Structures are given as structure tokens and as C-alpha cells.
Amino acid sequence: VPFLMHDETLRRTTNVKEVFPERALEYSYTFNWTDLEKLNAGRWFLQSDPFWTADSLSPLDSIAVQNQSICKLAELLRLAKEHNKSAILNILLPPADHPHRSGYINITLDTILKSGIPQGLLKHLFDIYCICIYSVSAMYAYVQSVKKKIFELKSGIIKKKDVYYVRIVFLHCREFTAWNLSTNLYTVNEPWLYSVLWCAGVQSVTSDASHLLNKVLSPVWLMSPEEYYLIWITSDVISFTIILGVFILQKWRLGSIRTYNPEQIMLSAAVRRSSRDVKIMKEKLIFAEINNGVGSAEELSLCSENGYDGYANDAITPMDHQ
After folding, report:
1. N or C: which end of the chain has fewer CB within 10 A?
2. Where does the sequence pass through the membrane (predicted)?
């Protein structure tokens, strides 16, 4: 019986630990359908609330989720047919010791045909036929390769690509469309990324947040090239104006400082100093004017607590403080 299960085991999304504690670590394909029907597959969702949406459920929906069981492939196909929704099938290869290893494709195809779902709603139907024709290793190369197997993709054997969006270039999406090759990217959970891929020409995405992407009826922010150029040029003009204004202001400030004489600068810097310090600085300036050419900070800083002891300069003779 083909059934739906993401994980290899049943521990995360069912209550297998309670019903079959001794088999909790076994793979899901080791259970028969009679055992799988006994498991609850919805209670974990309400308890862990992985997408923070459990509070938004109505009381009736909460009861339905809490009583959810493992879903058959036939039930999924029936729902897809009733609501005209696409179904992406990712058929896993059973292990070598599985009793239906040799006939699992025929069982799956028989389930699909009995459901009566239109083939246009099955996005991976061609993958199943390719597995029938080619080996599993060849099919893996078909699904994983984007650039190296481009000539095989152009042959039209596969009609669907399912790849990580980080491995694909937007230009390739348009090329795939030109070759009648639809593209599905996974996993896309953010509206902004969904919008970018939409504009890039991606036909569909696989998401864990369909309740959010469902509300995005058009790309979040789509601007024309004219609007883009306008914003770009306007930003450059504003930036240039600000930089030029700062340059002019700085030049004006430096130009006004050059009009001050040394005494004005020194006295302005000493406004908050004590009167004794101001007096000493005035005396420094007076001696500096008398002995033109002597103005370094080290030569004019020989002031002790009792006054000036003298200058260690050949051009000035020692003198007592007046």
C-alpha cells in the first residue's frame, strides 16, 4: 500500500512509541498497513506547532488534526483531483530486502491510474517512467545535474526539474522554459524569495509555509526598469550633493580659522582655564613675539610653579620673572 511519510522512521510524526514501543526505531516501510492504521499522525503537530499556526485553527479543525492518521497515496490523489491541485510525487526506492522491491513501480502506477487523476496534475509522473526505462543511478544523475546534463534535459525525456534554488541561475529558468521544461524549486518559505523566483520565471515551488505564500497574489515588490533607474540616479545625486556640501562646509570652516592670530587661538582655547593659566599663556605669547622664530611648544613650556626659570635657547639669555 503506497502511503505518505517524509521521515524514514515514524518517531517524529506519529505515536509509534506508545503503540509499538519495541518497534519505534524501525523504518516505516517495515510496517504493514494494518499496523500503520493504528497510529496517530496529527497529535504531534498540535503539540510541537512547527509553523506557529496551531492557535489559528478552529475547534473543529483542531479535532480533525488531532485525529489525523497516516495518509494513503490514493487518498492524496483523490483530494488533488477533487480540488484540482497538483501533486508532486517523490517515490522512494524500497530496500533490497523489501517484499515489493521489484514491483513497487507497478503498484504505484496502478494506484495512480485507479484514482482517475489527470496526468497534468502529477508533476513527477514522468520521473516514474524514467525509472522504469533507466537505472536508478542514471535517474539520480538526471535529477541532480543542471549544467553537466543540459543536453540530456534538452532532449525532452524529463519534463520536470526539482532542484535546490541555490543551485540554479535565473537565466537558466528562462532557458528551461524555452525548452518546454518546467521547474520546481524547494524549499521556499519566505514571501520575498517566492516573489523573486516568480519574477525569474519559475513555474512552481515546494514550501513548508503554504499558508503564507497562499496570500501572495503578486510579487511583493515589482518595479519597472524606468523606476529602478529613477531611484538609482536620484540616490546618486543626493549622495553627491551631501558629499559636496560637507566638503564646502569643511573648507569654509578651515578658511575662517586661518584669519585668527596665534593670540586669539591660544586665548580662545584657554577660556575655561584659571586666571593664573591665562596670565602665563599671555606671557608666553609676549616672549614669543619679542623673540621671533621661537615658537615650539617645548621651548615655550619652561614654566615652573614659581614662574619662569629661563629658556634653554642660545638666542635668549636667562632672565628672572618680573
Report:
1. C
2. 229-249
Say if CB 226 and CB 247 are below 8 A apart.
no
Going by C-beta distance under 8 Å and a sequence separation of 6 or more, which residues neighbour residue 34?
Answer: none
Cell of 158: 524529463
CA distance 5 to 245: 65
Tabulate helix, strand, coil % of the chain (nearest 5).
50, 5, 40
Q: Is the peptide bond before 241 cis (omega within 30 degrees of 0)?
A: no
pTM exceeds 0.85: no
Q: Which of 123-137, 139-153, 205-219, 246-260 has the highest average model confidence (pLDDT)?
A: 205-219
- The answer for residues whose C-beta is within 8 angstroms of residue 10's C-beta and 6 or more apart is 16, 24, 28, 31, 39
In sequence order, which residues have a C-beta less than 8 Å from that of residue 270 and are 6 or more positions away? 277, 278, 281
Q: Is 175 left (phi over 0), alpha (psi -120 to 50) or beta?
A: alpha
**Predicted local confidence at residue 170, as pLDDT:** 61
Distance between CA atoms of residues 260 and 268, nearest Å: 10
Rounded Cα–Cα distance for residues 91 and 14 (Å):
21
Instruction: Please say whether the beta carbons of 156 and 142 come within 8 A.
Output: no
Looking at the predicted structure, is the pLDDT value of residue 154 above 50?
yes
Query: Which residue is it, cell 510525487?
Result: 89
- Tens of pLDDT, residue by residue over 31-41, are 999 999 999 99
Rounded CA separation 268/128 (Å): 88
**135, amino acid identity:** S
Distance CA 69, CA 71 (A): 6
Between 201 and 297, where is the model more confident?
201
Q: What is the edge-to-edge ordering of all strands in the sheet holding 160-164?
A: 160-164, 182-186, 204-206
d(CA 134, CA 157): 11
pLDDT at 163 (0 to 100): 52
